[in-house]
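The records we work with from here on pair a chain with its fold. These numbers are not coordinates but entries in a learned vocabulary of local backbone shapes. To see the layout at work, look at the sequence and tokens printed below.

. . .
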Amino acid sequence: MTDATLTHTQTYTYADLPGLMGLMTGDEKHGPAATSTLDVLWVLYDRVLRVSPDSREDPGRDRFLLSKGHGPMAYYAVLAAKGFLPVEWLPGFGSYDSPLGHHPDRTLVPGAEIGSGSLGHGLPIAVGTALGLRSQGLDEPRVWALIGDAELDEGSNHEAIAFAGPAGLDRLHTVVVDNASAAYARPGGIAARFEAAGWSALTVDGRDHEALCAAFTAPHPGRPHVVVARVEPKSA
């Protein structure tokens, strides 16, 4: 299938995502950041998240917050593949009058829950979202935040991690895409940092769809849950 044949009337599969991403140019320096998230995003939207183009305003929907907002080409490709936005928008990515900026804008991108790209904000916002849903008595919606391993260099994330465990925010889920780009090592690894704060934690191959799905859907009663998705190093 060529890029020219990709239209909004088709049903897309994972195999179509490289073609959809190829429609977006001009931010090649963030290509590794985008491709590192591709499999995680696809498995979430294809198998896990309870949200669709028709339910994106439903109070009972799952919330997905992309904190790793720089290099959002994979995110836009998956949203287009799932019908949240027209495929015809993709070639205009990053242009002056395009709704698809180099960082997602929730007021312009259908399906985006937050504006993101400035690192260290997504997980704290997800904690607040989970608390807000709890206070409204909305027990079904799940909140997901996707962060990069380098974001764990930001102090705001450590405050969020430290709060969420003791608060028992069991509707909160975090995916850490680990492409070995963090400046500071975590004693015992990333998962151990979360476990020390009372989280449920699993580490999997970030390119293995079955392993990702199993980790995303693993039970974690009374605790928030993190999945560390390891992918090839950014410098590879």
